[in-house]
């Protein structure tokens, strides 16, 4: 249900505590005491028939006795009483509740009974089994936490109550404050995605930190995470990184946990920074909260102690960070300001007697080098120079945490001597860390987050990637034929034909029905090849090499017949019931310097289809050098997947090894991604090995598993955790002498907004946004243009000649995907030409195709032009129930026929 009615929870004007108590040690007593201690300024109504007064507050026997309508209810009563209380509260008008009570299990039926009681009233429930809710800005502590958190601008979401209270304790000692703390509990109703949606638009929240154990609704979670991460830093700890821990987490939360590699890929794609330890959570948040994402993250180090610099380099390399390589011009400039024995490399060792002037000169030169993306500045205490004066020299160059526009991370080593220098740096707005390891880890946070943010803004299409040509009909025909046979596994020839239809190079393959036909097929291939390979074709065998079903390096036709006979004998010994369909004969592909790769797809039980890349061959499980990503992919995302493996670095070439044809590998990854998008019936695919060298790639073997029931369907695949860019909604329209290009919005369109808004009259903007608006901050433009096409759609009209933005139609669906709110704005100088009608019609068609039942728009009563167009289009117009100045225009899609 996303954020509907959740505002009643975070900013209530009245509060009922049901199950409040005076009994020492009871949950009801702790909750009441916390509410009173934090000073909640609204009405507080304890409810318990055993008391007349609790904590100086009049206590009521029943919900019905409360003198007003509690906007928020806190429930700490026995499990069996909760559904009835929720119903009573809903009838009274309460729209949000925090159910601290545990024990409302699925098995008992109490959880569903609670949800059924809430549904008629759209009453939102946080919990059950939660520590509670704390909103310091509202002076609200509706929890049984042991401390009163400080007010700050970081929001905390936690699926574990114990982790939430531990972080509250840590934050108290480290002077960290919170905008909100929400213990999610069992997430029967309100989940992490709902809270992310809420916090993304909260002006009091600068950053969001999360502790997750499971992701029960991945598509909803990723949609919300991507929306939040576009406008503020989101840092996550996801437990269950190993199989045993994942099992424990599932037991604890009653939800499934995906494979850790997939979770990592999903969070990266959402633009979220994932870290591993609780101690890193706020440090990571503080680091990335200072800076914007970077295109590259090469670090340059300036230090007065060479050993300290080496320690940082070692840790940076361990963490996969890049070092800057200075230009010759920078080296010469440093030669002029540093002693002759300086390091003449990165790290820049300016020697232990470095004066403030030397610090300033060296930092200034290094910050201006084009290869420097992140600047690390260090100081080791010596008797020859003052750490405080060095800090002042560095601080004099700083502006908004940067020097020369480059992020600065400082590390003044030591304790007593360094303390004053750190204070100077912090006062100047520079990030300060105590140890080389700390500053290296902080650098890795910034690098990892920047890469995640780069992935976030990618919008791969639902159609062909780049200039590749895919034959969807040919691939579909093969899948239909296999499904008609009732088979779930394609044979090798069929699998190769499918991937070949999507441009993946494969060797010539002849399928022979018998050893004798194998001999004739081999003779034909040996006429143009030196050797052949013979492979088993059987529906009963998934991995041919496991049963001796592959024979290589055969130089004669008779040898091929003998190989087929030997394969049949081995298979009969291994599994007498296995059926042999034939033998695949193909030329031996000999590329002595080629790398064996594995590329494939599978379905994660939580996040759906995923794509794998890594080191291939028969030892793929032993080597275990793989990385995964969520489809859809584009060229950049495919390249990032390659770079996250060890073999990816080997593919770039080294010593006398030439680099492989990387674009060819990227094309295969994009082809697999497109197959996943196009065919929901594909369960898994393997290409192993894919040989890759400087000449290109070739798939020596392929395996495809399908769901015969789903094989008839065509995409876009609805099981994708991230919806692809809906390329099918692009079209050209002609209005008079002008041509307009209509398409879904893209992140790059943010650059078109300023000129569009300049040419749109203030009154038109007022009518669109229901209030005057003079300023559209960059953050808002990012939010308007970087959508995930799942809950929100925006269609833009671009001028065919200039490419300028001419109009926008926007649609935002409610969480049950029945009704969507729409908005429409056409540039003032282009109004009255029919463009608004065209955009509205396209939006209506999209909404209908997306399964929505109706679209509705809210507009001011004086917006007569829009109201007239809506009436002509078939909308019904009604007065807004809460504001007589507003009108609601509703179009029922089932009967709409303008």
Automatic annotation (TrEMBL):
Boundaries of every N-acetyltransferase domain copy: 740-897
Coiled coil: none
Pfam families: Acetyltransf_1, ATP-grasp_5, CoA_binding_2, Ligase_CoA_2, Succ_CoA_lig
Keywords tagged on the record: ATP-binding, Ligase, Nucleotide-binding, Tricarboxylic acid cycle
SUPFAM superfamilies in the record: Acyl-CoA N-acyltransferases (Nat), Glutathione synthetase ATP-binding domain-like, NAD(P)-binding Rossmann-fold domains, Succinyl-CoA synthetase domains
InterPro entries in alphabetical order: Acyl-CoA_Synth/Transferase, Acyl_CoA_acyltransferase, ATP_grasp_subdomain_1, CoA-bd, GNAT_dom, Ligase_CoA_dom, NAD(P)-bd_dom_sf, Succ_CoA_lig_flav_dom
Protein name: Acetyltransferase
Species this chain originates from: Sinorhizobium kostiense
Lineage: Bacteria, Pseudomonadati, Pseudomonadota, Alphaproteobacteria, Hyphomicrobiales
